[in-house]
Fold this protein.
Amino acid sequence: VSHQFINGELREGTSTEWVPLRDPSTGREFDQVHLADTGDVDCAVRAAKLAGEGWSRTTPAERSGVLSSLSRILAERSEQFAQAESLQAGKPIRLAREFDVPGTIDNVAFFSGAARNLEGKATGEYSADHTSSIRREPVGVIGSIAPWNYPLQMAAWKILPAVAAGNTIVLKPSELTPITALMFAQAAAEAGFPPGVINVVSGKGSLVGNYLVGHPDVDMVSFTGSTEVGTRVVRAAAPSAKRLHMELGGKAPFVVFDDANLEAAAHGAVAAALINTGQDCTAATRAYVQRPLFDQFVGAVADLMGQVRLGPTSDPSTDLGPLVSPQQRRSVAQKVEAARGEGAKVVRGGDVPADPQLANGCYYLPTLITDVAQSADIVQNEVFGPVLVVLPFDSDDDGIRLANDTRYGLAASAWTTNVYRALRATREIRAGVVWINDHIPIISEMPHGGFKQSGYGKDMSQYSLDDYTVVKHIMFDRTEHVRKAWHRTIFALS
Ligand code: NAD
């Protein structure tokens, strides 16, 4: 099977490199990707540039119609998408069926409507001598880079607002998980997207990713991935001053005040820490619990973690799947070991499961850690695994301060039944989303994106359309005068 989708056609990559794709649940190789080279990026960018001439002139209704056909095609193929996503990313099939795929279909449906809602200021006479109006125009060719944790949803979040607004795109999915992005691009072509509007190149980040974000014919870069790689992308895009849209790492706090519903908070923490085996940029990673509830909270979370079923991803009764790769599992295990070395208490987990049925997969036990310093690496930086750290706090001021005490600001939650505490948390925690008495849900109408080093720019929602468009001011002289009134400021003819 070919893994490049360029100018409406599936093609082989032209590099000399192949990488195997393995099922993270079993270690079994299921495909080989012939990787793209920089020449493939040139072809894709050329196709996108050419296609933009026509696509940018389509009406919003035309773009909306094609997106609406795409959502129908995806709905018909939802089971194929769920199976492919589960296989390549190691997701439990229930998660792929109930979260990844329906979420993507709803996104397509949302952008089908949003394409017809490009907003701007009223045309009018803001100066007595002129009429001003606003045009909202596509940026041009978008170069996009996506991560492996939600391969289908990330492809959709990048592609949809871009093409709904009249741009064309070259997307580079993670080399570990290109399959569903390619299926999405093919479905889009069947729905009526002309060749070249949506292109997918599968290749290494350090080579084709880096080349794509610096390409002279790419007008804007949108990136989702780690803060470390993101800063490299910013540098590569800087010489040509490209527009940037950056969705970076997260280290979401989960703040439990002493009036919270403890049972709800414990259930919420387990679900929000373990979603996608913790490989979620908004996952709950640092629970701060007000001292009177601390011991009970730790006990309740440990109990619930013990009830989570690890199993093969193809089994609908499996709750927790593997990590995406052996490297990812090594990285998670090393971070837990480092915390242990600093004296942290591993209340539960902290190891690979003993079940021989899971021995060939990249599984890691749900892990609960306490007794670690706020400054420790495991509190400050991403683990991207099924690991929750729980720390106590005393005053409300401390709870908020600790929540804000990392370089990230993507997501956060506060748990309280007191409306004033809830209001304070939503105002003072610096993050792109603050949930009250819940943690994780997203919806197509609302923006997703970070504060601080979690990046800038919004995915989903009408706000993302703003990011993928440029406003142009049009100003008409109304006077027909040769000599305008303001000319006297510059040259005062007698
Ligand atoms: P990563 O940063 O390692 O890689 C992301 C992408 O960048 C991949 O496609 C990779 O091939 C590419 N890449 C690598 N080097 C590059 C370079 N020099 N130039 C251009 N592209 C390059 O991230 P990952 O491990 O794939 O995904 C996990 C990370 O993604 C986590 O940090 C997570 O928080 C983040 N993430 C953020 C969001 C968000 O919305 N903020 C959503 C999902 C994931």
Observations:
- The CA atoms of residues 37 and 353 lie 39 Å apart.
- The chain has a mean pLDDT of 97.
- The longest strand covers residues 130-138.
